[in-house]
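Aim 2 progress. For Thiol:disulfide interchange protein DsbD, the working sequence is reproduced below.
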Amino acid sequence: MDLLGLIMAVLPLSIGVTVLPLMIVYRSRIPKMAWIINIEAAINGIVVGVLQWLHLYGIDTTVARALAAGLFSFAIIATSALFLVKELRRPRRS
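Predicted structure tokens for this construct:
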């Protein structure tokens, strides 16, 4: 087990596990777009961290880690784009 691999497993997993409950508890104080993106990022951290742990124990998870990172990145970008379109369609106040 190498040190870099251990850091790559612990860091996203610990951040995801810490952020996810905080985002649920303080949902009413956070703007909706930021809340959704942070939830997606926390889940991504948990998934990537677990896959990295499996990789450290000898299970080949290269494709799964790449797919997880790509899919969650796409989800965050798509969510941002949807909220941007929603804001742009909102009538301006004069």
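The first helix runs from residue 3 to 25. This observation will guide construct design in the next reporting period.
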